[in-house]
Amino acid sequence: MGDEKRELPPVPDRLPVSVVDAHTHLDACGAVTAADVTAMVDRAERAGVARVVTVADDLASARWAAEAATWDPRVWAAVAIHPTRTKAFGDAEKSEVERLASAERVVAVGETGLDYYWDYSPRDAQQEAFRWHIDLAKRLGKPLMIHDREAHEDVLRILAEEGAPNAVIFHCFSGDAEIARRCLDAGYVLSFAGTVTFKNAKGLHEAARLCPPGSYLVETDAPFLTPHPFRGRPNEPYGAAYTVRHLAALRGEAVHEVAESVRTTAERIYRLPSVTTG
């Protein structure tokens, strides 16, 4: 059992419509070189996950993600400083994040937001950094990708106070139906990770059923949050295919309908070229 827990799940059958993994961490999955990235995205494409957005959480990761997005045409990037790393977030860090976020293949500012689960950064530092990232997303005209862990009320309050960018993505949405309604009413997009496949995630199941087409995405947050029935094992972008199928069952829709919805939503939010084939 120990060895199995360290193994990647099997690559699932190909989805009927290709989708985008809206949030993954290729470097944390073990990718270092361009060849590593290509091999990882090749595995994803076999499952119908044809494109990915690789996301940074610190400056080293941001530099790598922005560079990796130039290595393979199926890869884009998002850069920001993760809220748990904002204890020291000064002018030099801001200047570097802004430079990287301005790159053509960086399609979002993120992940940024608030994390009240861990205590690595004071809440006031997190909130100040969050406000700065909101402003950056608006100045660059790019989507804002939010990390919200046990901080729903403050995240929503600060977005309202600052004025949200035109596109806001709640990465790995973790709220219940009531929070989902508030986000949807504000025009925000909810991104569902493997957590929505967990049997005990009743609030997430309700939230997923609420979302009209065009208001939700699918992500892996790989190498974390591997979908059921492989929970606890390493994750890769192809895992998004498991989540798409689970979402379809939750919503009582055909797999191709959910896949088409998350593909077109990702293309619209991230301004990706349209792909109409499976």
UniProtKB/TrEMBL annotation:
It comes from Amycolatopsis heterodermiae. The keyword NADP does not apply. This is TatD family hydrolase. Keywords: Hydrolase, Metal-binding. InterPro entries: DNase_TatD-rel_CS, Metal_Hydrolase, TatD-like, TatD/YcfH-like. GO terms for molecular function: hydrolase activity. It comes from the Bacteria. It holds the Pfam family TatD_DNase.
